[in-house]
Amino acid sequence: MKSNNFNKGIIDIKNIKTTALEKENILKHIMSTPILSPYEKRGVFSVFTITQRHLVYAIAAVVLFLSSGRYFIYAAENSLPGDALYPAKINIVEPLSGLLKTTPVEKARFEITKATKRLNEAEALMVQNKLNDVTKNDLEKKFKESSDAFNANISQISASSTTSNELKLEFDAKINAHTRILEIVEGQASDSDKKEIHDFQQNILQTRKEDSDSKNQRDTINNDNKISTQNTKESFNEKASVVKNIINDVHKSIEKTKGDSDKLHQAIINDSSTTLTQAEQTLNKATEHKDGGNLPEAFSALQKSSSAAQEAKTSIEDGLKIKTEKPSNDNGNNQENNSQDKAKIDDKRSSVDNKSDNNDSVDKSESKKSEEVKVEVKIENKNDR
Amino acid sequence: MKIDEKEKQFTEIYERELDSIFRYALLRTSSRDQALDIAQEAFTKLWKAFLSETQIKYPKAFLFTVTRNLIIDWYRKKKSISMEAISVNEEGDSYEFVDNNSYKNIQLSAEAREVIDTIRKLDPKHQEILYLRLVEDMLPQEIAELLQITPNATSLRIIRAMNELRKEMKITTTPKTEI
Question: What letter does residue B122 receive in the DSSP assignment?
Fold first, then answer.
């Protein structure tokens, strides 16, 4: 190959080029490529990066704490004596809730809540056959502490105040409801547990009787009636509407329980329905008295109606919380007893079922009558206080 | 360096070297579109290097190195050839691919084809260095940077390559392009 041809060949190769359009397009594509500019990058140790990163971490920590704290509180709230979180419930969660209560009224209500919780816990343990003497005594002690604290807060509220009286009635209504629940639980428990449950129930009632000055309470009720008469019919209508709302709410709650086939729950529902019926009947009587101009009697009946309505409400709300499923895994020592107890309960239930199969209508009407009698006696007892 | 200055510097290099990179890729891939893609990719990498404030002494060598690697990747995908099919010298450098038809799809003058044919007849070690020296006018320092050999070794290879070329061309005078 000649040198000239070689040189020409080199020049021809050098003339292999891109077109102007190709050059422009390539450059456009290069410049439009998203490349992180070093001016936007932050150094690892830059102040802004550190601050931003720490802020993100702090927010994440708070969110995590709040979310996990909520679950912790929820788990603790549902714990029972003997559970790992129960001490946290008693010593951390409840005291923290108590710190938020500032007025005597709020504190009194809080003590009602705490006392009721102890009763809930006792009932749950009874159903699960886990209530031993130690736990029973501990719950009774805690109940008494709440009852004492309740009285202390009530004493700070004016005796002539309707709020004080309402709080007392509310507390009593809740205790009455729970004594009824305990009776139902006792009725379905084994013979060995009956006495324990009965003792617990009586101790609770006794505690409440000792702590609350029943005479003073009666006087307060009488004073309250006198005050109510001063407010005449407007005051009565207001309180009556409150009672009606409670009654309606309980009716709705009972309607929602139609699918619940649990025997304990059914018994509680039936009992609550009966109490609710009494509340309605008593409210009607109170209205008749009001219309007849007998306001003292009207207010007296209204209070009874209010108590019965609150009692029915508590029965439904707290009673249906009781889980009747017994734990499948027990200690070896308790397993045999549990199976024996279960057999006894099953025998009892089957015998009850057999009875009801044989004498359906008669037994039902009789049981209903006996329940009505019990309710009537209870209301009479309240009047005696 | 400010972004505007970087962009200006890059654009200057782009305007100056795009055709070389394109040509280099075209003669090895025999596809205009592929060569354009490879060129764009190579310059994109250079632009990224600019933005990351990487110091590049020889931008041309950088571009050619990137282009070589992209061509190797393209060949692997296209022809599924193993590493052994790529001629490797004793020092471990890779040179021209063994592809006789790479330039036949390109519109070249007779003289240009003759140059390529002549170069392909030489020792593989000398083929690329001659191409870079004679066609792309790269300095020995730039070639050294590209081939990852010392400048002295580069100069020596260039001399040997030119002697072999003269022998092949059966000419006694050195082609116009000198060392």
Answer: S
Q: What is the pLDDT of residues A98-150, one digit of tens each?
A: 888 878 888 889 999 999 999 999 999 888 888 888 888 899 999 999 998 88
Single-letter amino acid, residue A63: V
Chain A positions in Cβ-Cβ contact with residue B134 (cut-off 8 Å): 10
Residue A84 CA to residue A88 CA, distance in Å, equals 8
Record: contact B112-A2, CB cut-off 8 A: no
Is B23–A10 a contact, with Cβ atoms under 8 angstroms apart? no
The verdict on a CB contact (< 8 Å) between A16 and B36 is: no
Alpha-carbon span B109 to B115, nearest angstrom: 10
Provide the residue range defining the domain that includes A236.
Answer: 231-322+359-385
Residue A5 C-alpha, separation from nearest chain B C-alpha, in angstroms: 6
Chain B residues lying within 8 Å of A39, measured CB to CB = 3
Q: Which domains does chain B have, with CATH numbers?
A: 3-169 (1.20.140)
Contact B111 A17 (CB under 8 A): no
How many whole angstroms separate alpha carbon B118 and alpha carbon B112?
10
pTM listed for this prediction: 0.46
Q: Is there a single domain that holds both residue A186 and residue A272?
A: no
Domain count, chain A: 2
